[in-house]
Amino acid sequence: NKFIHTCRDGKKGLRQAMGGTAHIMIRSLLLGWFRERREANGACIVGVGRSCHDVQNQPSPDMSAKDRKPEIAYLPGMDSETWEELLQHGGMVSFMNESKGFQGSLKDSAEDFVVNEIDLDGNVIKLEEDETGSRFDYSGCSYLRVLRADTQTSSGPEAVKKAEVEEECAGERTSVLLEQIEESLFKAELKDLISEEAIKQVETYAQTLEGDDKVDDVKSKGVMIDIPDAEAFLRRHLPDVSAAPEISAQVTKLFRSACHHAMKTRWPWIKTTTVDGKFIKAEKDAIFDEISELLVKDDLEKLQLFAVTTRRMNQKKCQEGVDAASSFVLIGQNADRACRTKIHQCISRCLPFFRSTTETKRSAGEEGGASAIRVERKEMKHIKSSELNKKNERRGTRPQKFKIEDGGYWYTAFVLRKEHVEHLEAISRLADALQVPPSYFSYHGTKDKVGITTQLFAVRGVKGERLAGISNKISRIRIGKISTSSYAQPLSLGHLLGNRFQIRIREISAKREVVEGAVGELGRSGFFNYFGSQRVGRYSADHLMPHRVGASMMRGDFETALKTLLYGQGDNKEKCRQAIDFYYETKNISKALKMLPRGSRVQEIVLKALQRNGHEAHLEAIKALPHGIRSLHLQSYQSFVFNCMVSLRMRKFGRQAVEGDLVWSSERMADRKRRLELLSECADGSGKRRKLDGGSFVGQEEDEDGVVESKNHAEGTDTAENKRIKTLTKEDIASGSYGIQDVILPLPGRSVIYPDNEMKEEYRKLLAQDDVDFQDPTAKLGPFASQCPGGYRQVVEYIKQLEVIYPTAHEEGKSWDLLLSFNLPKSCYATSAIREMMKECV
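User: That's the sequence. What structure does it adopt?
Assistant: Structure tokens below.
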């Protein structure tokens, strides 16, 4: 019992109590006892590190919020010690070379980690301080297509400007005409829109809704009326206006909307839908039954009569001198407080034309009084599309202004330089400054928060002048080299060659000979292409890493995913945990939200979703998160599995290709070779504008993580990407044509193939730790697993254009700094390369 209670504090407590050797023995005995108990009970046992509870049992009521945090279950499959080692290091436990490492300090300041993007033409993207707000001509870029070809012809800019003015004038004339038609339609009375016979049909049907059970079948069927011709309405009411053929479809759509609006105004209890574009079906709305259950018959009749008699108030056609008492109705005089609350909620949710308030009448000298619900009609003014467009134009979001003929949009390219700002946060700041949605921005890849990063961006429908206006007004963000032309497509993730890094390692105490040897080995042998800790997260004793969230989402355990997410996110984690502990102890979301520190965006979104949908709505809370955040955690789990497989493969097969390994086809290998050759030619700031010759460029088919992802999201491995994969045979190995530099490993998913050797079983064991099985098509997974078809990634990568600056002299026994500059292919993590050189986690 003493050993078990000591174990609750983790391995450190055992070491202090028993000593190093005894700690290992006791821990092994405990793990053996856990396995025996698991086999006897048929349940999964939570691993050492917290209190021992069966996963199938619910937490005891007296358990504190801290003990209710998510825990790791040891499922049948991988050895527990290997699993713990992989968890602690994010799967990164192997090295490509055996050189001696050294200690140092990385990312002490933003200036120590500088990243510049390298585009597909081999240009290093840079932005100097004096280039802020400047303009630039990107016409030589192969990856940008100029929107207007005539801007480069001999017709000159004057002809182009004249054409643009004429096009703008024609658009304005059409806009004015549509506005005039729209205003006339929505001011018209119902009898001017549809025939009298149709009005009688719907009126008769509306009266049956007040009847008894004899007409239930009639109520369910509804009635169908014809939609009159919009042109006939224009001839009668707007004889001077003729709709041009190119806007006839828009006029017809406006006419249908006006008919629906007029019918809903007169008969609020009726639901109207368009059928085949020729008929309007009127049927009983579900809100009729809901309100009928809450109101007595007299109150329901009063509300219906009030709705009919005030149907013209939203069009401001009530006669002058109308009695003020007829502008509202009182219902629910005998209802209790709970019933009144439900009536208020029902009217607010189901009847947008009405407003309800509680009115209490008190006699003189009385504290209480009779309460009733006052219902009055809102002034439901129809918002014209032209008014909405003007509002959007002021915000810079009017879509009509930046659509092009083929249905796409036009974009403005620019260079963004940020310092110590998270990538999505930078986009959010830009969107706020320009008053456009964040989705309007596109880029080639995401960059780290810590450091100074420079990359190419594009934004939809924003002119260069507006970008120049905010070029130096956002904290720690600079904009420059704004394109002088518009382009017909956004930037695509992964469409870059790589990145240029300038990294300073401080406080090195090792001898120069040791550092030189480590740098030389890194340049010769390369490094394992691990996903860095930025992706998989740093280890914590509570297992609150991002990939643990992704694992829970994969298997559909949304409660665990939500807890891990709430406890593991945020910069100020101590205050965040206090707020989340308070929520789990009291279920008081309002106070927990007030306790959250500034910047706890994820926790705020999740708690508000739980407040709306209930404490058990775990899936709805996860769906409330932005798509980018959900995808990031799912990809983090895939990345963690990839890292583990690279390490396990190194232990099994070493640094060589073996039978059953996966490699690219010869064509794709040639593309990769050309990419690396071009990357080798890109020096700092002097890249040449030239394109790759011959064949398609592999970079155009990979995503930002260098993962060639299966585009067929259907389950199965018969995809175009998998047909370009080759499985090595004995003859291939004997030929000596393949090495570790050619081997690729899959990121888990149902649309990938796995190596035809022992690694396939290692994938199964590792995924079994999280109760995830992609290899069995009948296995049940969570709904988010379908968003991860899988992909492929190189096991080994190489640095190019390595430049090292050593100090000219340093005193013996004192620390010194090292400056490195090098190129890496896209998706490669510089921290993984530095880890290989220093032989320690970075």
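The chain has 29 helices and 24 strands.
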